[in-house]
Specification:
Two copies of one chain form a homodimer.
Chain A (H helix, E strand, L loop, with lengths): L5 H17 L7 H8 L3 H13 L3 E4 L5 E4 L8 H8 L17 H26 L3 H10 L6
Antiparallel strand pairs in A: 1-2
Helix pairs in contact in A: 1-2, 1-3, 1-4, 1-6, 2-3, 4-5
Chain A binds a DNA duplex through helix 3.
DNA sequence: ATCTGCCGTAACCATTACTGTTACGACAGC
DNA sequence: GCTGTCGTAACAGTAATGGTTACGGCAGAT
């Protein structure tokens, strides 16, 4: 499906900011986050910009600028992040309208739409079950030195 | 996520072949299926080739060639089709290894892998719940003339 | 008032996946 | 042989993703 890493990187950034703030810092810079994720600061700023539009983070400009959480990690779920960074549906319909003169061509889109709706609903339930608090917990639970 | 229509088209083709066979025909041609899905026969042949590799359909060559089901529609699920036509995972990790010297960079991948594994397991359960028999039933249940 | 650091965003590029299309050899029944 | 269809390679167009450079704008520090 040509999966992308947007949800992963966004979760990484949120967990990083959350931990950074718990260590007493005010704001996190895109440069530091990018260094942790091993990517370019612009990539981080773009993603965090989408999270800001969704009300998950805030940004300050000027000197001493940076990013901070707009909500507690425990109140943010992967569904919030998913909705913020993933626009479209999981499965696409035909790119062109099927033959409406054919029984299958006529009925396939309503049929698949209903089926996909149920499946995506289940996916959303699962995403909503995972908070960023749990993500950070899992991150910190990773063994320091795998043998 | 840049969703594609592969699962939709594959389900369309299977439902079409199934209905065609119930109408007494032996084999379906990629040209007829493509006409119903309003696409190119090569697109259909490519997808059905993947379904053949998965043991869902069979193909005959030579004169009077075409495609037929290798299994009953009732025994084929959307998960079978999904596995046949969708190679990768739903969510991708970072494209480059995160900074292993950072606590978050070190723990994020194991954490997300575990979370994604659970979510994809749920998705697979949902896909396995839908048979192609049900898909065809939903197709035929679509209203003939929406007012 | 200027300096400085970082955001915000545009622009461009390389890579990849998907879909559509043409072309052509291979095969098997007639 | 003739014919119709598969099987597959090859190529093009479109789009998404991720990386990169560039630069204006903002606000606190000096």
């Amino acid at each position: 499906m040509s999966a992308n890493s947007r949800l992963t990187i966004a979760a990484h950034a949120l967990a990083w900011i959350g931990l950074y703030q718990r260590q007493g810092h005010e704001v996190a810079t895109s440069e530091k986050i990018a260094a942790s994720a091993n990517t370019n600061p612009v990539v981080i700023r773009r993603l965090l910009g989408e999270l800001r539009r969704a009300g998950l983070v805030e940004s300050r400009r000027g000197a001493g600028a940076g990013w901070s959480l707009a909500r507690e990690l425990g109140s943010i779920t992967l569904l919030d992040v998913y909705d913020a960074v993933e626009p479209g549906p999981l499965f696409a319909m035909h790119r062109t309208t099927p033959d409406q003169g054919c029984v299958v061509g006529h009925g396939i889109q309503p049929a698949m739409r209903g089926i996909y709706r149920d499946i995506e609903e289940t996916l959303r339930d699962e995403l909503a079950r995972v908070t960023l608090e749990k993500v950070l917990g899992d991150v910190l639970a990773a063994p320091r030195r795998p043998l």
